[in-house]
Amino acid sequence: MGSLDGKVALVAGGGTGIGRATAELFAAEGARVVVFGRRPEPLAETVAAVVAAGGTAMAVAGDVASEEDARRLVAAAEREHHGADILVNCAAVRLRAPLVEISAADFAEVLRINLVGAFVLTKAVVSAMRRRGGGSIVHLGSALGTVAAPDFSPYVASKGGLHLFARAAAVELVQDEIRVNVVAPGTIDTPIGQGVPEFRRHLLKHRIPIGRAGHMGDIASACLYLASDASRYVTGAILAVDGGWTAS
Questions:
Q1: What percent of the chain is helix, strand and coil (3-state, nearest 5)?
Q2: Burial grade of 71 (CB within 10 A; 0-12, 13-18, 19 or more)
Q3: 48 Cβ partners below 8 Å, 6+ apart?
Q4: H or E segment at 57?
Q5: Helix or strand holding residue 10 (H, E)
Q6: Are the C-beta atoms of residues 228 and 2 closer than 8 Å to each other?
Q7: What gap in Å lies between CA 162 and CA 96, rounded to an integer?
Q8: Where are the domains of the chain?
Q9: CA gap 23, 35 in Å, rounded
Q10: Beta carbons within 10 angstroms of residue 48's beta carbon
């Protein structure tokens, strides 16, 4: 038996990177997975990988910050699987530039996806979880929601806001048996992480006490813990999965 047998899990940003790794792991643990994101092609690849491994998955394309699209996501889960028990929000964008070179529109777009999107998805799934008697929401934050780095001001602002939004949602939704937590990765070998220039990756690596970048599976496993009943007494937590970076 898997730790998520009988559960329905929505994975935003499930077409690539950590989102795909999470969707595949959750399906292997028995969840029926619904992946969500802007681009249909990567979502279809995730679904194909899950089905090839013997799991159950479907895809819904949409914008995480669109209330209409978020409602469509939840409606699809209820129509096909009679509800939603888990939401993992891995959707994010990152803009790297000196703050004096960033337009207000670009700054706002990072917040729209990373922070407003978290609010929209959380709001959309609450009613479905209430009907199931509770649920677990896991947002992907970042070490850069706790500490800062040059040239990432919109991302730092969005992830810091996400951490506190999740805590606000946790204390508000606890009465509905809905837990809300954050996994805060450090430097991870993903396509978005590989966009950092090699010299800077070298510097970041040597600030990490464990001495290496993390793997996508490290983050997916942390999401599994927070989504499962193993963490039934955990809500409002920011779980750092960063090799000791923010501790040092």
A1: 50, 15, 35
A2: middle
A3: none
A4: strand 56-61
A5: strand 8-12
A6: no
A7: 19
A8: 8-241
A9: 7
A10: 12
pLDDT lower than 70: segments of the chain: 190-206
Q: 179-216: per-residue pLDDT in tens?
A: 999 999 998 886 555 555 664 566 565 678 888 889 99
Token pair of 206, please? 């040597």
| Structural tokens at position 197 | 């220039």
- Tokens, residue 101: 């070179």
Specify whether the CB–CB gap between 124 and 67 falls below 8 A: yes
Three-state DSSP class for 50? helix
Average pLDDT over the chain reads 94
- Residues labelled as active-site residues: 155
Superfamily for the 8-241 domain: NAD(P)-binding Rossmann-like Domain (3.40.50.720)
**CA 47, 44, 228, 221 torsion: positive or negative?**
positive
What strand order describes the sheet that includes 135-140?
Answer: 56-61, 32-37, 8-12, 86-89, 135-140, 178-185, 238-241
Q: Which residue type occupies 54? A: G
Mind listing the pLDDT tens digit for each residue in 84-112? 999 999 999 999 999 999 999 999 999 99
Tokens of 74: 């939840």
The answer to whether 30 and 56 have CB atoms below 8 angstroms apart is no
Query: C-alpha 25: how far from its chain's center?
Result: 14
